[in-house]
Prior knowledge:
Blueprint: H1 7-17, E1 24-28, H2 33-38, H3 40-51, E2 60-67, H4 75-91, E3 98-104, E4 108-109, E5 118-119, H5 123-136, E6 140-143, H6 146-152, H7 158-161, E7 171-172, E8 179-180, H8 183-197, E9 205-210, H9 227-242, E10 251-256, E11 295-297, E12 304-307, E13 310-313, H10 316-324
Parallel strand pairs: 1-2, 2-3, 3-6, 6-9, 9-10
Antiparallel strand pairs: 4-5, 7-8, 11-12, 12-13
Helix pairs in contact: 1-10, 3-4
The protein binds 2-acetamido-2-deoxy-beta-D-glucopyranose (2 copies).
Amino acid sequence: xxxxxxxxxxxxxxxxxxxxxxxxxxxIPNSFIPHFASNRSAALSFVSAHLLPFLPRTPxxxxxxxxxxxxxxxxxxxLPALYNLQAAxxxxxxxxxxVSTTLSFSHISSPFxxxxxxxxxxxxxxxxxxxxxxxxGAPLFVNLYPFSLYLDDPTIPxxxxxxxxxxxxxxxxxxxxxxxxxLFDAMVDAFGCAMVKAGQDSxxxxxxxxxxxxxxxxSDAKAEASLRNAGFYNKGLxxxxxxxxxxxxxxxxxxxxxxxxxxxxxxxxxxxxxxWLYPNMTMKYDLDFFASGACRLRRGAFWSFSxxxxxxxxxxxxxxxxxxx
Length: 325
Ligand SMILES: *[C@@H]1O[C@H](CO)[C@@H](O)[C@H](O)[C@H]1NC(C)=O
Ligand SMILES: *[C@@H]1O[C@H](CO)[C@@H](O)[C@H](O)[C@H]1NC(C)=O
């Protein structure tokens, strides 16, 4: 009974998250990009209306402007919009909030082995964005869905996509010598290599969305989308974040999509089965965020914790969904 795809629930959700000690990453919908780009006061009024009322009680540590705007006709507006949003944050003394955008994996061409990866777009198109991130010390947010890649590529073994470490389940990169034991690490490094080729080797990567569905919508994905596999995937992800994976590129933070099933979300049936919790907030499968003492609670919150300098906030998936609505 949770319909979170409505802008009014943004207010309710941020209000209810207030004081819970949860640090938020917020996603701003694509529709704001042209306004921010053409009008600096639109960015300023967004900050005043949507961020200032909740600060400092609800810490917000990053903003992602747009969901893959570079793949749409909004691409020319992205940079001016980012600069105006950054200026609005400077104006309100909120420069500790990092401004970024989120890219999907479809921007990467020839991702395997990761050392061969590069951006589809020309360097002159991608460089201004990377320069902006580098200038402001912001990470690049990426959506990584090994599930989709696995469905599209029959040569990828299921165990490799699911973090199931099996003796002969690895892919080596002949250039770097890295032996990848899971698809997630290979996808992260593909983004890292593409950024190096575009001239930036110090921009951190943050994973805005990753996860595995528990129920499929069509006959193809029926078997793979299951409670068991979602459990394998998300447990493997937590382990990989704790152990830093066997990848070259550091992942600053990762957000699991999603905290709970959205049974009233429009669109294909499968999008409503990515949750860790049922809509009634009972757990669908066991996931121990605090295993082996590597995670610790931040400020007593239930689902905000840091893992050796890494912040992994599941609750944020909720906020992301809300703002995307
Ligand atoms: C710029 O944005 C402000 C705040 O949203 C709005 O009041 C104003 O009308 C906008 N100006 C233009 C030229 O669109
Ligand atoms: C929550 O929902 C799930 C799935 O619909 C159901 O199996 C479970 O029994 C429910 N739990 C409670 C406590 O209502």
